[in-house]
Please model this.
Amino acid sequence: MAAAVIGACRFESAPEMALVEGAPEMALDEEARVRLGALATTPPEVLKALVADASVTVRAAVALNPATPAYTNAALAADPDERVRALLARKLSAIAPSLSSGALNQLQQLTLDTLTGLAKDETVRVRAAIADAVKDLPDAPRAIILRLAHDDALMVCEPVVRFSPLLTSEDLVALVAATPSSGTQVAVARRLAIDTAVSDALVSAGKDDAVLALLMNGSAQIREATLDALVERSVENPAWHDPLVRRPALSERSVKTLARIVADHLLEVLAARSDLDPVLAADLSARVSERLRCETGVTAPTAPPAKPTEADLLAAARDGDARKAAVMLAIAADIPLPAVWRAAMLRSAKGLVSLTWKAGFSMRTGYAMQVLLARLAPGTALKPGPGNSFPLSVQEMCWQLDFLSGKER
Model:
């Protein structure tokens, strides 16, 4: 069928004629048919005929061709190969803004209907291609955006939920309530500048991972009363402690509650906040000092703790005392304790090796710190270089130290 249509066509240019010249009843090879399907000047009836071509590469060329007519695109939307449909979806998504406003002519409406149909495609790959293309368009068809946002596949809904400017606060609240996929709430929580209505909806929904994502979103607006409630709930959710102590505008009630329940390294972060009442700040600083004295075994309140030796640190490692080792490493490296805990929580082998280097200790200790603090398996920890040297360059270790101290942005 395709052969007869192509053989009967008149071509206006020599290259097009060359594709079919001397090939009665369509003896064109696949490469020639691909070129024909990709040409902007190929007659519409030929493109329509190529939709039925046995080669998926030929049909893909037609799907990608910007000159392919709307009715041919509609036929390709039913192609049996998902790769062809995905390519078509991405092409049509690029012209989506022209389909979102005003009265549409018949061909535009057909194109919009085709794109809408692809947004319902049974294959995730096809729907994801549309979502990726329209996720941040300010004038994409709103109906398609809403459909994609409610998709039950995370790779489809997440980019739209996180980035589409067309989703309103009401849309996001409805998404949280509907929870079409397990990751939808988390995607909403990571969206920039969500308002208090959305934050309240996320907190009320009760999904711990979504609340954690919300607390880690510095641009999210959270009411003071909501933060107070989360602080109370955080007793059962230690993962919330770190982002909570770093949230702006904590109430005095929340600060006091956190001071009772957070780990030592987070108490130091809490005490360093610049927005605390002076009396409360002094009380927290005293608690930090007392905990440090307990950890290092230094009992004299007026004397600074002695710098630990490498033998001291290795002894703590042999005892499995991670907290004591972290404090000693912070003192020896002259770096804030939160930086050591950050390396531990990130399970950063490079970070802990760099801290050991800064402390003036050997890679033997660097290896021990990786196993103890980052809980790395011996086979995955960084090993010493020749002559017990450090396996990282000085430049790399300096960068790691800046990163752990918060100087790298």
